[in-house]
Amino acid sequence: MISLTDSQKIGMGLTGFGVFFLLFGMILFFDKALLAIGNILFVAGLSFVIGLERTFRFFFQKHKMKATSFFLGGVLIVLIGWPIVGVVLEVYGFFLLFRGFFPAAVGFIRRIPFLGSLLNLPFISGFVDKVGESNTMV
């Protein structure tokens, strides 16, 4: 079992609450306050989980500057008060930032009994195969 430090446990909780508030804010027709709280909690939780220095190194790598600008720009636009535009920018930046993790995530999900068979359905497997390849997304 993986042992986590206390700050990593706090970070997992903050990240979980951040994702919850983001999803709940989208369900409630892009509620500005919930989306803003979710964004702040998600970024703070990520900083607690991997550390502040590694978070800065992850976001501000030279080849990830476009993705970082879209993601953090989306967060800023949500905080300003345009939630739909901000969420669209955030999602695009999120996919650009974390596209290197998608092949590992797809491989892991395919080994889970119910979800693996769900991902192998004809109309879903083509999309999942494209997302699972690391070099196809630009």
TrEMBL record:
<dbReference type="GO" id="GO:0006888">
    <property type="term" value="P:endoplasmic reticulum to Golgi vesicle-mediated transport"/>
</dbReference>
<protein>
    <submittedName>
        <fullName>Vesicle transport protein GOT1B-like isoform X1</fullName>
    </submittedName>
</protein>
<keyword id="KW-0333">Golgi apparatus</keyword>
<feature type="transmembrane region" description="Helical">
    <location>
        <begin position="12"/>
        <end position="30"/>
    </location>
</feature>
<comment type="similarity">
    <text>Belongs to the GOT1 family.</text>
</comment>
<dbReference type="Pfam" id="PF04178">
    <property type="entry name" value="Got1"/>
</dbReference>
<dbReference type="InterPro" id="IPR045176">
    <property type="entry name" value="Got1"/>
</dbReference>
<keyword id="KW-0812">Transmembrane</keyword>
<keyword id="KW-0472">Membrane</keyword>
<dbReference type="InterPro" id="IPR007305">
    <property type="entry name" value="Vesicle_transpt_Got1/SFT2"/>
</dbReference>
<comment type="function">
    <text>May be involved in fusion of ER-derived transport vesicles with the Golgi complex.</text>
</comment>
<keyword id="KW-1133">Transmembrane helix</keyword>
<dbReference type="GO" id="GO:0000139">
    <property type="term" value="C:Golgi membrane"/>
</dbReference>
<dbReference type="GO" id="GO:0005829">
    <property type="term" value="C:cytosol"/>
</dbReference>
<dbReference type="GO" id="GO:0005783">
    <property type="term" value="C:endoplasmic reticulum"/>
</dbReference>
<feature type="transmembrane region" description="Helical">
    <location>
        <begin position="36"/>
        <end position="56"/>
    </location>
</feature>
<feature type="transmembrane region" description="Helical">
    <location>
        <begin position="68"/>
        <end position="85"/>
    </location>
</feature>
<dbReference type="GO" id="GO:0042147">
    <property type="term" value="P:retrograde transport, endosome to Golgi"/>
</dbReference>
